[in-house]
Amino acid sequence: MTELAGKHIVLGLSGGVACYKSAELCRQLIKLGATVQVVMTEAATQFITPVTMQALSNRPVYVSQWDGREANNMPHINLSREADAIVVAPASADFVAQLVQGRADELLALLCLARPSSHVPLLLAPAMNREMWGHPATQRNLRQVQADGATVLGVGSGEQACGETGDGRMLEPAEIAEELVAFFQPKRLAGQRVLITAGPTFEAIDPIRGVTNHSSGKMGFAIARAAREAGAEVVLVAGPVHLPTPRGVRRIDVQSAAQMRDAAVAEAARATVFIATAAVADWRPAEPSRQKIKKDGSGRMPVLHFVENTDILHTVAQGERARSGALFCVGFAAESHDLLAHARAKRERKGIPLLVGNIGPAAFGQDDNQLLLVDAQGVRELPRASKLTLARDLVADIAARLAAPPVPQP
């Protein structure tokens, strides 16, 4: 929880009922290690008090450009020069319009205008009624403010304070914090298209039961987030798991190994990196029952016949794009014992440049993990850490391999 350690964030609040979310956002940024300086418009103080934001940030809150606490009476200069980023959440339609027009009649807009744009980024989290959000003037202003160098984080959809439902809700505090963390991550995979499979598959025995495993999908989802943070376009093919989709990641939900294979093969046609973290079932019932299989009182389990599922990683790795070098393939091996020996054998069998091994029972469902990176040159261990930390380390490793001259495969 130190992903923003050493960062100083100016958190701006413009007028809107979503200001109540800004209190939690302030707390989250501080938990991530940042220091937070709150600046509010006069309208924002009608929705949440400066006292509340001062208590949460542990810093005096600024509202007026004439604030006498600054010795030189220039808070718009002093506050902007100290910041690593300025985040305005909520950013109202009126506030965005002020930025587009270069108006600076309140401290927050003045501060944004006076910031050194070359090294103090401006991130906006809009919040407004759905009709205001969809209005041509608002959309035109959002395009212009982005052209002027700001980053617009987008909006959520759902119930609004006015009672209507639609686009325009401010993103949740956790989403904004995730976006800010991603903003500061090195863009090592910029221009890459990354395809990831994650989670288990479910192979139906009948309409009620099936064959699956303990994979939670957490490692694959962490890699998807890390790849997107690194600037990649990310597609995540997910088995049946209950995890939120990382911000900015396109998700395809599947159930069976056959569905995962079809989705992976289709998406691999335009990917540049394929990371197969999914724990795919090796076998499936040959003929699933159309009705629930009932006990017959004999005490004997019905005989089930199984057939082998297609090897997704091998299929993709032996495709034309992978063999030509246009697609870099990374496999995962979840083992219960003899990890290194099994990982080496699996890498050679799959014909891939990199195999990542872990002990499945020690990793499934956990928030941390320990990995072995196995390639033709040897083995490198990533010691136990959070799965997101390991995912970022793995992404950095893959990026370095993509940037390096190709190594002939044995």
Condensed summary:
This protein has 410 residues and is α/β, with parallel strands linked by helices. The protein has helices spanning 19-31, 50-57, 75-82, 93-101, 107-114, 130-134, 136-147, 173-184, 218-229, 257-268, 312-317, 320-323, 339-350, 360-363, 387-403, and strands at 8-13, 35-40, 85-91, 122-126, 151-152, 156-159, 165-169, 193-198, 203-204, 210-211, 233-238, 250-253, 273-276, 283-285, 306-308, 328-335, 354-359, 368-375, 378-386. The strands form five sheets. It has an eight-stranded mixed sheet, sandwiched between helices.
Category by helix and strand content: alpha/beta
Biggest sheet: strand arrangement = 12-11-8-13-16-17-18-19
How far apart are the termini?
42 Å
Cα Rg:
25 Å
Low-pLDDT windows of residues: none
Q: Count the DSSP helices.
A: 15
Outline type: elongated
> Largest sheet, described in full?
8 strands, mixed
**Beta-strand level of the residues, as a percent range?**
15-25%
| Count of strand segments | 19
> In percent, how helical is the residue content?
25-40%
